[in-house]
Amino acid sequence: MCTSVLCLVCVSLLFRTSLSCYQCFVDMQDSLRLCWGHILTKTNVRNVDACFRKLDRIFNNNGRVIEAGRVGKGYDKQLKELLDAEILPMAKEFDKKLNDETVYEKRLQTAADNFIAAASKLPRETYRGIPFMHPSGFQSAGAVYNCITCQYDSCEFPLDCPVKEIKAMENSRSQMWCEVPFHLPDDMEVIWRFAEEVETQQVDQFKEVTAGVDRLYSIPSTSLHHQGTYQCEIYSGQRSIVRLYYYLTVTPQVVAGHTELQEIFDLSLLPGGRLLPASGGPPYPHLLLPSPLLLTACLTALLLLLFLSLGAFYWSSKPEKTSQAEQEDGDVDLGFLKGGKIHVVQ
Question: Closest Cα partner for 162 from 200, 217, 195?
Answer without folding.
Answer: 200
